[in-house]
């Protein structure tokens, strides 16, 4: 079996050969990725079910469809993305061609996560392939069945010269990171992200970090309670709450909370029935360790459980749980929950809610539910987050036109759609100067004088909007 | 002290004062006044720091800063406005856009070779994007650092933008604080330390580093013009430019011609005695002087070679027949020494370049389009100028930055604004069309799944941006037609 170093050297040699550069090669690889999904839907469903008891519905939408959509989007737009972009020039450079070339970086490393084990590794791969790079994929060892499936399918469908899967745990990842890559794309936790950045600094490797945090959901003012409850419940309990963009906690007034709770209960019943443990549409917690952490959080919490609270270690089941009277210092408010527990904190005013959010780290997503557009605008203007969605949750991720990424503690960089292509490209500024008019260049040469300087100043002034200058040169 | 500065700025930023566009434009105008009203003071400081000529100062620093400020001021409305993006069927009736937002408090660490441009150009973007900023000018260009510290609070909001001076210790202390972005210009060695420090707070960085920028001269080109342009770019600022052509690659048959043309040009630019030319700068200090001079060991001097430590003067020097293993080829020269390395044609030149770290800039001189195309497509570098040097830096619509060892991130013009902003993805939905959402809710049925997939698809929209509207228009048209038929039927 090849060592990590050998894999990397092989990929680097492949990249140097230029094989990934032609658009035809990239399209072929993207089409092969499509076939991977088309031919293996059942195996994918099985693997995700084994890892997370993920219901078919969720696997299809969040692991297959979202990735396939992005592949199609890339295939349709790749030729355009690859074209150089010509840019405006000033008078001194009017006879020259100025353009930006998108060029591949080289060999990139993509480290996936366990909660969406296919999506979080293959969606970045689309951008890497589209941009003409080679890539090493390091799937999470926690989602074992998907890891195994990826290790089997990637070499079967994609060029083995250019793309490889490296499996293993923390030790293997640490060794992998000692090598030099041209970009590292990591999805996961903040503590591991720091280690990745430190490893990247040794080689001056740029990174994209898709991290997490506590995504607040502000519910305020007049609203359609039933619709709000359904959307909130869907976004929270999708993948059993194990989504980096799941609404982590709710901030609302006591009145809103009391009005909302019956609708939340109704929504939960309509989704998962009266006994969610029997519903085939609710997933499970990924490992015993994660289950322990969540159950421990519930125990430590001083809030009052109003819905759910049941759990079963054997099946790693935790019921969709809503807990009220949670305050700032509660155990549930000290870390990202990443499970099917929804704390509701009460506030007296919108200002209080916004201040609460702003005192904390910038989240990956921020949600505001209100029928009053002023409320939505105020929250948007006065907070910061990776992404923002009003009156719904998670769905902003499904639009390839929107960049997906964090800010501050929730991450750096972004991807999805064209943004993935841009993330894995170097934008090279190019200028093709004319041989002509060397007499004009004289203005810049020594011996210097005031008159030349004035001419140059005039000729190099930024082109103002709407100024259609006819070049003297 | 550094902690107080960072904390203080954070508090001021959180007050929201820097967000209104009016405020940002006001600060930009104030910055413009600073460099125009105090131009003479700046020129004087640079003369003391680098023996820089006033024209050189304007040409290489002030014009770029001025242009960036004017551009930012006139385009800010556009840059800061929400940027709508393509939707899918699910979001057809929603508002979907990217909202540029300030990051918070940014740290800008400057460098000594262009002490004003390297700090103020990033500052223009920081202000335009609505951030607060700490500026840390290089202590090596001490007169400029001192002047910057004195002038900035006289023109800009001194609570929002502050200058911290000092050396390595102060910089290290600053780097321990938490910033929302660090913009560093300097060496790769220190760049790694900056990135390491940034890692502790998960702070994104822009690193404008350096490297050895190669300059390939093809035998098919106007060698005289090429050499004039190269001489200008190499010896301006005494070679202390991150994108100066570091070394020349050419075939042996044209080496002597190149030396001859450079000699002619040097005479024209700096006359017989560059030491007494008012247009020729000096090395920044004796440490760098010693470093650069030592690089000449082993080399054959074709032109120049004179030096005077008391003035930190090194004459414009060309070295011929330089071999790849010489010390001068192991590090960025950053001085007025121009080595010529001979290669047997384009293939070898490309191979030579690719065997080394990706440079900040790459130059190729040729009248043959195939040569240019191959050089562009078979190498990588931060930026490129073909048939000239340095000039890609002057076009503010081109992103300026490195790749690999030469850096990460980019700036100039709008690119600085974008670099120092957060691009927040926004989806503004209403509670309407809840019926559509039923498709995604459990319990799963085949029909629901089919519907959910259909509305998620981007496949229809990707072929044409008007597809969604075509469908809606068609549905409306059908509806109107049905209504018309009903009305006519009733009337008849």
Automatic annotation (TrEMBL), chain A:
Among SUPFAM superfamilies, the record links this protein to:
ALDH-like
Residues annotated as catalytic: 210, 244
Task: Give an example GO molecular function.
Answer: 3-chloroallyl aldehyde dehydrogenase activity
Give the matching Pfam families.
Aldedh
Domain Aldehyde dehydrogenase, chain residue ranges per copy: 7-426
Which keywords describe this protein according to UniProt?
NAD, Oxidoreductase
Q: Does the keyword NAD apply?
A: yes
In the UniProt record, which is one GO cellular component term? Answer: cytoplasm
Q: Tell me yes or no: is Oxidoreductase among this UniProt entry's keywords.
A: yes
Q: Which Gene Ontology terms describe the biological processes this protein takes part in?
A: aldehyde metabolic process
Identify the stretch annotated as signal peptide in this record: none
The family note in this entry says: Belongs to the aldehyde dehydrogenase family.
Specify the protein name: Aldehyde dehydrogenase
From TrEMBL, chain B:
One GO biological-process annotation of the entry reads: aldehyde metabolic process
Kindly indicate where the leader peptide sits in this chain: none
Task: Write out the GO MF terms.
Answer: 3-chloroallyl aldehyde dehydrogenase activity; aldehyde dehydrogenase (NAD+) activity
Q: Where is the active site?
A: 208, 242
User: What sequence ranges are listed for the domain Aldehyde dehydrogenase?
Assistant: 10-422
Q: Which UniProt keywords apply?
A: Membrane, NAD, Oxidoreductase, Transmembrane, Transmembrane helix
Report the sequence similarity comment from the record: Belongs to the aldehyde dehydrogenase family.
Q: What name does this protein carry?
A: Aldehyde dehydrogenase
What is the species of this protein? Carassius auratus
């Amino acid at each position: 079996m090849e060592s990590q170093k050998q894999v990397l050297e092989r990929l680097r040699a492949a990249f140097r050969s230029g094989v990934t550069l032609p658009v035809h090669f990239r399209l072929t690889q993207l089409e092969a990725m499509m076939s991977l999904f088309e031919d293996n839907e059942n195996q994918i469903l099985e693997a995700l079910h084994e890892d997370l008891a993920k219901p078919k519905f969720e696997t299809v939408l969040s692991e297959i469809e979202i990735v396939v959509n992005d592949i199609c989007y890339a295939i349709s737009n790749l030729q355009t993305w690859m074209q150089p972009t010509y840019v405006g020039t000033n008078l001194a450079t009017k006879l020259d061609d100025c353009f930006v070339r998108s060029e591949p970086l080289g060999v990139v490393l993509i480290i996936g996560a366990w909660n969406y084990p296919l999506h979080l590794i293959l969606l970045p791969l689309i951008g890497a392939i589209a941009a003409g790079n080679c890539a090493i994929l390091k799937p999470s060892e926690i989602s074992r069945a998907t890891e195994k499936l990826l290790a089997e399918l990637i070499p079967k469908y994609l060029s083995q010269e250019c793309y490889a899967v490296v499996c293993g745990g923390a030790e293997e990842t640490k060794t992998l990171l000692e090598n030099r890559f041209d970009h590292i794309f990591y999805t996961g936790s903040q503590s591991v992200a720091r280690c990745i950045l430190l490893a990247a600094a040794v080689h001056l490797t740029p990174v994209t970090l898709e991290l997490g945090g506590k995504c607040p959901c502000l519910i305020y003012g007049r609203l359609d309670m039933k619709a709000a409850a359904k959307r909130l419940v869907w976004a929270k309990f999708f993948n059993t709450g194990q989504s980096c963009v799941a609404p982590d906690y709710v901030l609302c007034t006591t009145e809103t909370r009391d009005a909302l709770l019956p609708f939340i209960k109704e929504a939960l019943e309509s989704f998962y029935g009266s006994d969610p443990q029997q519903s085939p549409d609710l997933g499970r917690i990924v490992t015993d360790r994660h289950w322990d952490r969540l159950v421990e959080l519930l125990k430590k919490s001083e809030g009052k459980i109003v819905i759910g609270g049941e759990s079963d270690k054997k099946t790693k089941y935790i019921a969709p749980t809503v807990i009220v009277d949670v305050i700032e210092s509660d155990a549930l408010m000290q870390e990202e929950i990443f499970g099917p527990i929804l704390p509701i904190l009460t506030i007296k005013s919108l200002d209080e809610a916004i201040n609460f959010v702003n005192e904390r780290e910038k989240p990956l997503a921020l949600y505001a539910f209100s029928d009053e557009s002023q409320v939505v605008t105020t929250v948007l203007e006065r907070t910061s987050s990776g992404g923002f969605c009003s009156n719904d949750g998670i769905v902003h991720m499904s639009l390839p036109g929107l960049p997906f990424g964090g800010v501050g503690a929730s991450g750096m960089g972004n991807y999805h759609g064209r943004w993935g292509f841009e993330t894995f490209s170097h934008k090279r500024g190019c200028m093709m100067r004319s041989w002509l008019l060397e007499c004009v260049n004289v203005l810049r040469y020594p011996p210097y004088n005031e008159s030349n300087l004035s001419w140059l100043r005039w000729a190099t002034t930024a082109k103002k909007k709407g100024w259609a200058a006819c070049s003297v040169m | 002290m550094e902690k107080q500065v960072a904390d203080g700025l954070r508090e001021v930023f959180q007050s929201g004062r820097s967000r209104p566009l009016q405020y940002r434009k006001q600060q930009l105008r104030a910055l413009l006044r600073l460099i125009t009203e105090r131009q003479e003071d700046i020129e004087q400081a640079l003369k003391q720091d680098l023996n820089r000529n006033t024209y050189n100062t304007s040409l290489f620093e002030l014009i770029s800063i001025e242009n960036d400020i004017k551009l930012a001021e006139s385009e800010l409305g556009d840059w800061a406005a929400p940027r709508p993006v393509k939707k899918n069927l699910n979001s057809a009736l929603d508002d979907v856009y990217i909202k540029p937002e300030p990051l918070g408090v940014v740290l800008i660490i400057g460098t000594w070779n262009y002490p004003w441009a390297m700090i103020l150009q990033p500052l223009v973007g920081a202000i335009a994007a609505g951030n607060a900023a700490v500026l840390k000018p290089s202590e090596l260009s001490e007169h400029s650092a001192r002047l910057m510290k004195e002038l900035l609070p006289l023109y800009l909001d001194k609570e929002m933008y502050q200058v911290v001076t000092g050396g390595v210790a102060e910089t290290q202390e600053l780097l321990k604080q938490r910033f929302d972005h660090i913009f560093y210009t300097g060496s790769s060695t220190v760049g790694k330390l900056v990135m390491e420090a940034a890692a502790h707070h998960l702070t994104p960085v822009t690193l404008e580093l350096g490297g050895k920028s190669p300059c390939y001269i093809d035998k098919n080109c106007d060698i005289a013009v090429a050499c004039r342009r190269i001489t200008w770019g190499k010896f301006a600022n005494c070679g202390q430019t991150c994108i100066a052509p570091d070394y020349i690659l050419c075939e042996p048959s044209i080496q002597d011609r190149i030396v001859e043309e450079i000699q002619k040009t040097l005479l024209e630019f700096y006359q017989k005695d560059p030491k007494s030319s008012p247009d020729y700068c000096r090395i920044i200090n004796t440490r760098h002087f010693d470093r650069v001079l030592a690089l000449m060991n082993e080399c054959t001097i074709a032109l120049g070679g004179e030096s005077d430590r008391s003035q930190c003067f090194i004459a414009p020097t060309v070295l011929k027949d330089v071999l790849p293993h010489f010390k001068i080829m192991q590090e960025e020269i950053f001085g007025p020494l121009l080595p010529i390395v001979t290669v047997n044609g384009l293939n070898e030149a490309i191979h030579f370049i690719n065997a080394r770290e990706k440079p900040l800039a790459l130059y190729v001189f040729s009248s043959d389009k195939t040569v240019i195309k191959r050089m562009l497509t078979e190498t990588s570098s931060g930026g490129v100028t073909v048939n000239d040097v340095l000039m890609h830096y002057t076009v503010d619509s081109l992103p300026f930055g490195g790749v690999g060892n030469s850096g990460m991130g980019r700036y100039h013009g709008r690119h600085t604004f974008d670099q120092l902003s957060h691009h927040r993805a926004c989806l503004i939905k209403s509670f309407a069309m809840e019926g559509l959402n039923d498709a995604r809710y459990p319990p799963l049925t085949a029909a629901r799944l089919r519907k959910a997939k259909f509305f998620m698809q981007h496949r229809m929209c990707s072929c044409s941006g008007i597809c969604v509207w075509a469908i809606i228009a068609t549905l409306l048209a059908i509806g109107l037609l049905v209504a018309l038929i009903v009305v006519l039927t009733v009337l008849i």
